Amino acid sequence: MYNDKRAGAWELAKSGFHISLNRTPPYDKMDIALLACNSGEPSAELSKEFGIGLDQAEFIYRDIEAKRKATATMLH
Fold this sequence. Notes:
- The chain is mostly helical.
- It is 78% helix and 0% strand.
- It has four helices and no strands.
- It starts with a helix and ends with a helix.
């Protein structure tokens, strides 16, 4: 690894990402959440599908969008 301030920022970003994963669905449900989000399904439908509260389903959608925005500059 190179000695750069970005390396420290990457470690911090990774730790934040892992904390966020603890509040999002397990990996086996993440595909369903992504499909629902990409298809424009209301968060109420995701809430029913997963048996979770509406606030949790809305958090999952916001988290997906936030991760997309955060990584968009890395991918382009």
